[in-house]
């Protein structure tokens, strides 16, 4: 109890982050229920008919579902590969520039769009 009396301001500072996490990460998970329903927007989540795994059976019984899964996996792996490879190659190429002023200017121009997002 004594440590809580000392650290209560830190707990209060943590409260907005916890609220943000709950609102944007945990509350939307309630929508996962729609995958197991014959969802009708005018009935809502609680009024729609429960169908269990029928939606998944329908999805995976289609002849092109295996191709869709493979395409998704291939795209995900390629995105991971290139999202790691491109920054490494850029860093190595940037390191090869001898003039420090030019090197810093190019680095600033490349990273500037990351600070301008709204």
Automatic annotation (TrEMBL):
It is found in: Cell membrane. Keywords: Cell membrane, Membrane, Transmembrane, Transmembrane helix, Transport. It is a multi-pass membrane protein. It comes from the Bacteria. The chain crosses the membrane at residues 12-36, 68-94. Gene3D superfamilies: MetI-like (1.10.3720.10). PANTHER family: BLL4140 PROTEIN (PTHR43227:SF11). This is ABC-type polysaccharide transport system permease subunit. It comes from Paenibacillus brasilensis. The lineage of its organism: Bacteria, Bacillati, Bacillota, Bacilli, Bacillales.
């Amino acid at each position: 109890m004594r440590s809580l009396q000392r650290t209560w301001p830190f707990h209060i500072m943590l409260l907005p982050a916890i609220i943000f996490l709950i609102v944007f990460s945990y509350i939307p998970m309630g929508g996962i229920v729609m995958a197991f329903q014959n969802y009708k927007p005018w009935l809502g989540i609680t009024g729609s008919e429960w169908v269990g795994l029928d939606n998944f059976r329908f999805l995976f019984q289609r002849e092109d579902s295996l191709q869709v899964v493979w395409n998704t996996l291939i795209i995900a792996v390629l995105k991971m590969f290139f999202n790691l490879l491109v920054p490494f190659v850029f860093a190595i190429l940037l390191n090869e520039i001898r003039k420090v002023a030019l090197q810093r200017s190019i680095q600033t121009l490349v990273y500037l769009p990351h600070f301008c997002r709204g």
